[in-house]
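RECORD TYPE: inverse folding
INPUT: structure tokens
STRUCTURE:
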């Protein structure tokens, strides 16, 4: 089947926060509070770390204090247990339409297994929506390195050139581009101006006209 760029797209890969769930505002508030405490002169740092694993954040910004690291992890674990994991508008309908066309799907997230267990408790149906779920435990280098997306393509046995990836962060979009995957940027976390130079396509949510268009070509 001919699709955009005259390719056959056989797999759709999704980041988690800000792409599947409308959680990024919650994380922005959490990390904003953390960085205002420890990095009061570095405004906007909570936006710069998006797409990085927790381990990467801790080793980059809090390497000098294991006590602070433990405090942040404990605070984050408690925070994630009470988070609201609401699907982005139109996502469930989109993922079901993909499955109806026998398209493979995967989650590619920097979140860890304990956080995902909170997702599964709130959404028992979540695992069945995807052919694979990759977390931070599944790769060594986090976004913007391409490893996670290349691993996902391999897990699905689909060439990267036949995958489409959905991201909301600069690091995530750089990861897709480095992997050679067609990138769709969601304007859920950053402005369109901030990401459109990194994304092949930008959309507001899964009700976008582009979504309806791509479904006609797969």
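DESIGNED SEQUENCE:
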């Amino acid at each position: 089947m001919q699709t955009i760029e005259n390719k056959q797209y056989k797999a759709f890969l999704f980041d988690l926060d800000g792409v599947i769930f409308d959680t990024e505002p919650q994380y922005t508030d959490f990390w904003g509070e953390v960085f205002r405490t420890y990095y009061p002169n570095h405004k906007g740092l909570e936006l710069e770390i998006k797409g990085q694993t927790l381990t990467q954040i801790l080793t980059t910004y809090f390497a000098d204090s294991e006590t602070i690291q433990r405090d942040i992890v404990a605070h984050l674990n408690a925070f994630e247990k009470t988070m609201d994991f609401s699907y982005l508008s139109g996502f469930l309908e989109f993922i079901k339409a993909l499955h109806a066309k026998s398209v493979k799907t995967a989650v590619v997230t920097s979140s860890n297994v304990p956080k995902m267990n909170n997702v599964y408790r709130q959404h028992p149906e979540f695992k069945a929506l995807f052919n694979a779920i990759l977390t931070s435990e599944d790769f060594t280098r986090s976004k913007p390195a391409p490893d996670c997306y290349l691993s996902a393509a391999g897990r699905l046995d689909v060439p990267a050139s036949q995958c489409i990836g959905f991201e909301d962060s600069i690091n995530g979009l750089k990861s897709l581009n480095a992997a050679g995957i067609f990138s769709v940027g969601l304007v859920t976390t950053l402005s369109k101006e901030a990401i459109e130079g990194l994304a092949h396509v930008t959309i507001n949510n899964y009700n976008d006209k582009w979504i309806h268009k791509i479904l006609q070509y797969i």
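NOTES: The radius of gyration is 17 Å.
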